[in-house]
Amino acid sequence: MTTQADINREIAELRGSGGPQPRRDYPPYRSSMLRYPTRDLHQVDPEGVELWAPCFGAADIDDHEADLTVQRSGEPLGERIVVTGRVLDGDGRPVRHQLVEIWQANASGRYWHQRDQHPAPLDPNFIGAGRCLTDGDGVYTFQTIKPGAYPWRNHDNAWRPAHIHFSLFGTDFTQRLVTQMYFPGDPLFDLDPIYQSVTDAKAREMLVASYDHSVTAPERSLGYRWDIILSGTHRTPLEES
Amino acid sequence: MSFAPGQTVGPFFHLGLPYEGGNLLVPAGHPDGVRLHGRVFDGQGAGVPDALIELWQADPSGQVPRATGSIRRDGYTFTGWGRTQTDGDGHYWFSTLLPGADPGRRPFFAVTVFARGLTDRLFTRAYLPGDEPDPLLDGLEPDRRVTLITTREERGLLFDIHLQGEGETVFLSYPRQAR
């Protein structure tokens, strides 16, 4: 069985090799081996629908979907947190009234998912999925529980650092992003082949939220701030509706 | 300005992303409806049972839909956007309308692929079969070009996606992306 020391060596060899986006061919993440395209991506100028993103609106979502702590009858276990930030496009403009979706493990590191066999307790009061729309300044806000780290089967005694999965849309199709938000100072960062699939240290840091006392809810929740910058839009200002 | 890196959707995305009716851009059985479907394959030709496919397209007249309501569909409004997961065989399907395009252009569906094991999303196009010239298709070798063209069937269109290896689908990047 591959050990953590083996994986650490592989991670070290590939450090800095891949630019600011994750390497698609990243052997330390074993599940990637048969699933990455071997040919270079073909660059194309976006046209038609690719110059636009799908629209979501208030009718698509209920307000309470942004609060993952009130979706069941009781209070979930764990550390309550606010996670908030702005979604910006590659030119620094806020992405307004656009969909943000998240999913995560509970405080014990267990997902509400049939395929999660980690023998940590499910929490009947925490499912771990939420949605919201950004406001007029591109701000999203979720109330949730700090997720736990959890083991996985990439190699012997592999553990994922605590994270929240984020799904984001921009103002054109090409800006689509699914990523993961991490918590500052996690001791598992150096050991994790998914986090390290982004081989550029500065780019990886963009995935780490900051603790922000100003977004806490007194006597209820601690708070984290995480701004998300998408790639640039291909539409010219004249095409903006 | 640098932008945030992607990360894999992992194995548990079903918790957060797919939703009831996500694959029904029009109700199944709609008089003008077609089934766009196919399988997602890995580098050994096995179906990928934990992939997620998103579809984004023009309406039949070639207009880009600007209507909300893709998550809570009303059954009448064509929003042009859908999302579905693959099943145990790696198969996915959408009920939708044929996209149009500007005159002389070849219509296509814009497709985004996510999967456990895929560190970042992949973009591609699923073109309707046809004769119109197209700058992307015309610039590809024939064996690569065919990976982007749907096959017409009695009730719809087939579009298989090969992540790796023989018949590997052409995946796209756009000018404002790093790679």
From TrEMBL, chain A:
<dbReference type="Pfam" id="PF00775">
    <property type="entry name" value="Dioxygenase_C"/>
</dbReference>
<keyword id="KW-0223">Dioxygenase</keyword>
<keyword id="KW-0560">Oxidoreductase</keyword>
<protein>
    <submittedName>
        <fullName>Protocatechuate 3,4-dioxygenase subunit beta</fullName>
        <ecNumber>1.13.11.3</ecNumber>
    </submittedName>
</protein>
<feature type="domain" description="Intradiol ring-cleavage dioxygenases">
    <location>
        <begin position="83"/>
        <end position="111"/>
    </location>
</feature>
<dbReference type="InterPro" id="IPR024756">
    <property type="entry name" value="PCDO_beta_N"/>
</dbReference>
<comment type="similarity">
    <text>Belongs to the intradiol ring-cleavage dioxygenase family.</text>
</comment>
<dbReference type="InterPro" id="IPR015889">
    <property type="entry name" value="Intradiol_dOase_core"/>
</dbReference>
<dbReference type="InterPro" id="IPR000627">
    <property type="entry name" value="Intradiol_dOase_C"/>
</dbReference>
<dbReference type="GO" id="GO:0018578">
    <property type="term" value="F:protocatechuate 3,4-dioxygenase activity"/>
</dbReference>
<dbReference type="InterPro" id="IPR012785">
    <property type="entry name" value="Protocat_dOase_b"/>
</dbReference>
<dbReference type="InterPro" id="IPR050770">
    <property type="entry name" value="Intradiol_RC_Dioxygenase"/>
</dbReference>
<dbReference type="Pfam" id="PF12391">
    <property type="entry name" value="PCDO_beta_N"/>
</dbReference>
TrEMBL record, chain B:
<keyword id="KW-0223">Dioxygenase</keyword>
<dbReference type="Pfam" id="PF00775">
    <property type="entry name" value="Dioxygenase_C"/>
</dbReference>
<keyword id="KW-0560">Oxidoreductase</keyword>
<comment type="similarity">
    <text>Belongs to the intradiol ring-cleavage dioxygenase family.</text>
</comment>
<dbReference type="InterPro" id="IPR015889">
    <property type="entry name" value="Intradiol_dOase_core"/>
</dbReference>
<dbReference type="InterPro" id="IPR000627">
    <property type="entry name" value="Intradiol_dOase_C"/>
</dbReference>
<protein>
    <submittedName>
        <fullName>Protocatechuate 3,4-dioxygenase subunit alpha</fullName>
        <ecNumber>1.13.11.3</ecNumber>
    </submittedName>
</protein>
<feature type="domain" description="Intradiol ring-cleavage dioxygenases">
    <location>
        <begin position="10"/>
        <end position="103"/>
    </location>
</feature>
<dbReference type="InterPro" id="IPR012786">
    <property type="entry name" value="Protocat_dOase_a"/>
</dbReference>
<dbReference type="InterPro" id="IPR050770">
    <property type="entry name" value="Intradiol_RC_Dioxygenase"/>
</dbReference>
<dbReference type="GO" id="GO:0018578">
    <property type="term" value="F:protocatechuate 3,4-dioxygenase activity"/>
</dbReference>
